[in-house]
Structures are given as C-alpha cells and as structure tokens.
Amino acid sequence: MSESAAVRGPVIILVEPQMGENIGMAARAMANFGLAEMRLVNPRDGWPNEKAEAASAGALHVLAGVRVFGSVEEAVADLNFVFATTARERGQQKRVLGADAAMAETVAQAAGGAGVGVLFGRERTGLDNGAVALADAIITFPVNPAHASLNLAQAVLLVGYEWFKASGGTLPFAENERSVPATREAVLSFFNYLEGELDAAGFFTPPEKRSIMVRNLRNIFHRLRMTDQDVRTLRGAVVALVQGRRGGRNPPRKARAPEAGETGA
C-alpha cells in the first residue's frame, strides 16, 4: 500500500545528518515502504547534496520534496505528535515503544488527521536531550546491547517497515498455486507400486521389520501433502529407475574406453 492510497505516513526528520550518502539511503528506505516526506535539520554538508542523490537508488521523488529547517523546533512545529528514536535511556519519563507499537499508534493518529513525525539523530551521537525533550514518546529497537548503535538509514528502514505493515502493506507475491491434492486412490496406488519394487530389490530386510518400514516410508510421503502432480512425478521417477536397472528404455550408456591419444579425463 502506498502512502497516497492510505493515511499520511509519518514525517521522517533527520537532525543534523552528517553524510549525504546516509540521507540518500534513508530516502531509499522510505520509498521502499511508501513514505515520502523527509525533513532535514541543519545538514552538515548543505542541501541539495549530490551524494544523497547517488545513494538514493532512484528515490529522487523523496529527495525532491525535502524541506530544510534551522532547528528541531521549526521542523516539528506543524506536527501533532512526535517520536524520538534513541538507543539509550534518557531519564525523561517518556513512554518507550518498539517501532511496531509506535507505528500502530501512528496509523490511528494519522487516520484522525494528526501529523506525526519521527526524529532521527546524528550518525555519531544520535539526538541530544533537547531534541528528545520535544518528543511525546520514544522509539527504540530490540538490539544487541553490546552493539546497539544503528546506521541512520537502517533505523529509518525499521520504522518504515513497521509503518508499512501497520498501514496494511502486504507481501509482493504469494506462493504459486499448487495442483490439486492427490486422491487417496492415487497415493495408495503409488505406495503399492513403490513397495512392490522395493520388495523386488530386497529393501525390506529383515522381513519381520517390513510392516514398520512400510509405515515409516508412507509417513514420509504423507508429510509432504502430495499433490496429484507430485504423485505422478514420483511414480515416473521410480519407473525410470526400475526400467533403467532392467535394461529398459534409455538404459545408461556404458563408459567408452579411451582411444589412443586420449587421457580419459
């Protein structure tokens, strides 16, 4: 589901981003999940940025709509609700949510007409406490505590992914439709044929274990939930093996002895 087909997605606000490449990759992550509104607060290398365009992988529509602000206060002034992303506790007595819960809330808020923004901090140091203080709640991610810092674009991607799911996004394709399930008659016919050939090959030994071995073998195939096509393919494969062993159609060729001058390799 694209943003235009649903409620307005959260505004992605990058506070003092240091590298154009990260801005571009964040724009790419936004485009992946139907987000289109990016704001920048004092980007270190100015704006526009050629490196951002090169790293955006075609998400130029996101970059074309970027708005630049001189402060976080200005960037969030028209929004009704703001999240701040951070990897560490700030002691500010704010609600702390995972991205999934935060984006579920965002869908509900945006459906009511509220503008929602998500703040992301500098690549090296994240958001300062002043920026976090402007937020209504905190988003953090379940990560390895020994390596908790996320790349800026990765953090944007996680939020975008949860937004897309919460707003009704679906997988781009589904499992190919399988052929109809095999009838019990076809399955039993295959079992009888297979077990008869295994008997002829001396597979079921010792004889007193035959019933258990047959049951185990059948259960293997039952777990496959075989379709009609599966049964026909498996039966054809066994037929080919049996006929080949007996010198029937298309028997395997005998290896030709190397002629003079050949290595045989």
Automatic annotation (TrEMBL):
Pfam families: SpoU_methylase. GO terms for cellular component: cytosol. InterPro entries: Alpha/beta_knot_MTases, RNA_MeTrfase_TrmJ/LasT, SpoU_MeTrfase, tRNA_m1G_MTases_N. GO terms for molecular function: RNA binding; RNA methyltransferase activity. PANTHER family: TRNA/RRNA METHYLTRANSFERASE, TRNA_RRNA METHYLTRANSFERASE SPOU TYPE DOMAIN-CONTAINING PROTEIN. Belongs to the class IV-like SAM-binding methyltransferase superfamily. RNA methyltransferase TrmH family. This is tRNA/rRNA methyltransferase. It comes from Chelatococcus composti.
